[in-house]
């Protein structure tokens, strides 16, 4: 994840926090355990003068994958609630929906 202040790592962190904010029920992100864990991992794997993280690319890839997972889960829920069907329709309901009349219906 490189340094927290490096541009790609910071952009990815902001995207992750934005997705968590959109899905969270609480307003304060500082109280969210998921956010605390993510920030802890970012701090743990950052590069400093005294420490060199060999897995910078791997951790950045994991962060981007996690962002994609959060984003796509939220989109799935939105699409599912918008287009979810009400189950199987009866013949009468289907005929009414397309504008047909059944033979036993009055004209």
From TrEMBL:
CDD domains in alphabetical order: Complex1_LYR_FMC1
Source superkingdom: Eukaryota
List GO terms (cellular component aspect).
mitochondrion
| Protein name, as recorded | Protein FMC1 homolog
The species is: Papilio xuthus (Asian swallowtail butterfly)
In the record, the note on similarity to other proteins reads:
Belongs to the FMC1 family.
